[in-house]
User: Fold this.
Amino acid sequence: MIVTKTKRGTNLEDVQEMNRSLIIRLMRRRSVCSRAELTQASGLNQSTITNIINELISWGIVVETGVIDGKKGRRSIGIKLNGEPYKIIGIRLARNTITVALFDLEGTEYRKQQIPIHKMDGSANAFNRMKEMIGDMIEFNSIGQVVAIGVVTPGPLLRDEGRIGLMTYFPGWEKINIQEELMNEFALPVYIEHDAKAGALAHWWFGSSHQDHGVMIYVAAGQGVGAGIVIDGKVFRGSLGMAGEIGHMSIDYNGPLCECGNRGCLELYCSTSALLQTLKKEYPSLESVWKEINEDRSSETKEAVRQAAWFLGFGLVSIINTFNPDRIILGDELAEAGDLVHDTVKSVINEYVLPEISRKLTIDLAYEDKDTMLLGSAIVAIESILDLPSSYLNLQNEK
Ligand SMILES: [Zn+2]
Assistant:
């Protein structure tokens, strides 16, 4: 799909598209609502709402739910979004796993499949496995149609080029144009995003407060370290889409050399890859580390995790001073350690950030029950679909 970025005017068709987009987004935040409620919330007039809703019903994206009681005892017909006919394949590429899942337009997950990958087998093999999983997932889908693919990858990601700039601990991916190859293979639009940015977006989408304004930073401290910065609901990407690569922010100019060429990069101190390297002899996996900590068997292991969390907090101090966020969410593997990491990060930040700033700052752990970066891979695609609903969602009409 070609969207002309240089266009500056707004045609009548664009206005219609913007209104459809607005209505779907308003409905996404409500379960069942009425046309009157949407008229009020959007500021559009009644006949515009009627036309748009009729169109969305014909696309199968909105359904009527029967009579509901409105304000002042007025009864009306309830309507709600129906994401089921429009499916998205969400993919999370990590350094040791590939996860592929089937979602609908509302972000509901239908099926998930995960495989382990290893750098010894090479990135080309891993990429072939990914394609097979996507093919299987498309075949599995029985209701509606897959309309887009979303992929999230560790960074640094060259988003406009559709490929990873460098994947530390797993070389070779930088040679593969993931976006272009998947588009050619499956003839579907493919959206690619840095995993931490997608995780940030997922938290904003499903966040309990449903806030519209503010600065939220999602920190993905896993096999690498990255951050997603969301400002007033939009992901901050920077010039090349590489903003938030805090893993390669140096905390020691004299420190060890990193694969990126810099010295003392944050992820050398607080990624789970680095943590496992420190604990290498004793632990085959991260699960065994968490188990040991929970059972309180080794004070040395606990100290190593606390140390990693301390470095993460220390790195975040610079990020907080740069962006003055209202909310920080600690996610990915290191956050699985729970309170030990949460409390340590909070105490470092309280110690090194001005009290005026830290008083206004909330630091939370990410949802435990969801892989927010995987969910984010679908949301990145959904957001693009919702920007141009008529291009993706009127499939029924074309048949
Ligand atoms: Zn680095």
The chain is about 40% helix and 20% strand. The domain at 211-369 is CATH 3.30.420.40 (Nucleotidyltransferase; domain 5). Residues 21 and 389 are 6 Å apart (CA to CA).
